[in-house]
Amino acid sequence: MEEQILASSSSSSSSSSSSAVAAATMQHDLSGSAGSGGARYKLVAPAKLPISRSDCITIPPGLSPSSFLESPVLLSDVKAEPSPTTGSLIKPQAVHASVACSTYSATTACSNPFDERNPSTFEFRPHPRSNMAPADLDQQRSEQSRQIQIQYQTVSFNSSASVKSEMAGSSNVLSLSVPVHTATSMSSSHAEVDAEELNQIGNPNGGMPSGQSDHRGVGPVSSEDGYNWRKYGQKHVKGCEFPRSYYKCTHPNCEVKKLFERSHDGQITEIIYKGTHDHPKPQPSRRYSSGNIMSGQEERSDKISSLNGRDGKGQKTLYIQFYCGVIFPFDLRINAFFFTILDKSYCGYGQMAHSIEPNSTADISPVTANDDNLDEVEDDDPFSKRRYRHYVSILWICLLAKDTSKQ
DNA sequence: AGCCTTTGACCAGCG
DNA sequence: TCGCTGGTCAAAGGC
């Protein structure tokens, strides 16, 4: 099998490209961080990216992701909904392109509105339209000292569809390094890569099966790229600070392998994919088993029900997962929008830890797009301009939270 | 029972 | 041939 490392260190051309970027800018620079004492990562610049910032949908200054919640959305079942990126619809080229562009800009929007200076972390600012009671707001203000924070997990951008096609043409091996700021209290800091859409795109946690440094059996430590992987070896490679783990795709006759290096604190420092899946992603057989995908209704209700949980210390830990998607008025005949999740990894996965007094009645209500917008979708006039005013809109969804407190 | 991780041993390529 | 290295195998054990 011809194998070749793509996106390996640093092609100068990529570093000069403004679009190349994302991944590069999110990489921790290893070479110069020897004295930092922090996590060190191999610098693996992305391959040349065919997309450029200017070509993409851009988010005007001052516009927060929450603004996109104005977009109409049909989100009864995100997973099942046919859409250009779920693979259940044949995607017109134009639409495909817009997905790729939106992907990029969405990523940009993810970091910028929260903290442009530090793409790795941002503060979570509850949406003003959230159904938080005034008392809750007061409490929220009073607790600024323990402000809700989300550790934002950055991932490489070379997982755009455009990149995929370029990569697929030249090699079936992808190597990338991803700095991942994992939530220390949860093994499931994960970003997800739609591997079926993006084929072989590395994802830190994403592809992370239960690693040896994970707490086995605790939390979703699954193959977040949608495929199932089995670890078949681990080796400490010379020159590498951390051991390298070897994984195989568990699908019969699938020869795809992936390697990744993981630091002691759980951070993924390098991922290498070898081969290409010649099979669709397996259906998740159980929660967290593969890609932690459940039906939208099921997942939401599950997370909603968990919102009120607290641990023994009165600490309430919420895990908020951001989704970013594109809405396509794909089929006017059936009066339906198709919401396509662009991949959570583009948007980040964050942990929000929020302290709530045991006796407090304050509960944080999730900022959901679907709640606000379903009514809009149910507009009487199926062809109203209002309905389709956002022909292609980026939508941010805060898909509720997961509480890790013991029930 | 099945699937997974762990881990030492084994194998192949290379200088 | 030998030693080194990266990759893989497979038994054992956990979940």
Detailed description of the structure:
This protein is an alpha+beta fold and 407 residues long. The chain has a domain at 235-278. Helix content is 20%, strand content 19%. The protein is built from nine helices and eleven strands. The radius of gyration is 21 Å and the shape is globular. The protein binds a DNA duplex (15 and 15 nucleotides) through strand 4.
Poorly predicted regions are: 1-172, 176-223, 286-407
Q: Structural class of the secondary structure composition?
A: alpha+beta
- Strand tally: 11
Radius of gyration: 21 Å
| Biggest sheet features | 6 strands, antiparallel
Q: Label the overall shape.
A: globular
Task: Give helix and strand order, one letter per element, not per position.
Answer: HHHEHEHEHEEEEHEEHEHE
Give the helix level as a range of percent.
10-25%
Strand content: 15-25%
The overall pLDDT average reads 43
How far do the termini sit from each other?
50 Å
Organism: Gossypium australe
GO molecular function: DNA-binding transcription factor activity; sequence-specific DNA binding
Domain WRKY: 224-282
Region (Disordered): 1-38, 115-142, 199-227, 273-309
Main traits of this protein?
6-stranded antiparallel sheet; globular; DNA-binding; nucleus; repeat
Topology:
Blueprint: H1 12-16, H2 21-26, H3 93-115, E1 121-123, H4 134-142, E2 149-151, H5 161-170, E3 173-176, H6 195-198, E4 229-235, E5 244-249, E6 257-262, E7 268-274, H7 296-306, E8 315-331, E9 336-341, H8 344-347, E10 349-355, H9 369-377, E11 393-403
Antiparallel strand pairs: 1-2, 2-10, 3-7, 4-5, 5-6, 6-7, 8-9, 8-10, 8-11
This protein binds a DNA duplex (15 and 15 nucleotides) through residues 209-212, 216-217, 228, 230-235, 237-238, 244, 246, 250, 257, 259.
Biased composition (Low complexity): 7-24
Domain WRKY: 224-282
Region (Disordered): 1-38, 115-142, 199-227, 273-309
